[in-house]
Design a protein that fits this description.
Blueprint (H helix, E strand, L loop, with lengths): L4 E7 L10 E7 L3 H6 L2 E8 L10 E4 L8 E4 L4 E4 L3 E7 L3 H14 L12 E2 L3 E2 L1
Antiparallel strand pairs: 1-2, 1-7, 2-3, 3-5, 3-6, 4-5, 8-9
Length: about 130
Amino acid sequence: MERFELWTADLLFPKESGLKKGRRPVVVVSDGETIGDTGFVSVVPLTRELTKEQRLSHVLLCSRYLDYPSRALCEQITTVDKARLIRRIGYVEDPFDRFAINRALAVHLHLAPAGIIYVQEDMNNGYY
């Protein structure tokens, strides 16, 4: 399992949270070392609902691995048990999509101002 892989996951959210639970596609956003060291992984759920307001914490993904254009909801980042990951469906291949996910997470978590997110080149995975 690697960062930016796309998986189908069985997500469990409390009923009062208002978040959709059940089987949904997700993007793994944990780093490689964290993934190997624990039984848990951080993921961002995807939705095919594209009519709602676009936010800085949303990223539109049009991947050949997804059945439909989807929006990564980076404000809903969550940690799940690896056993909840059902099936690997692909990978976020586009380096600009990976950059956009990192930027959306940084904006949501207030790690840096929205205008000051730098790109670091990774020889294996392009930009992140």
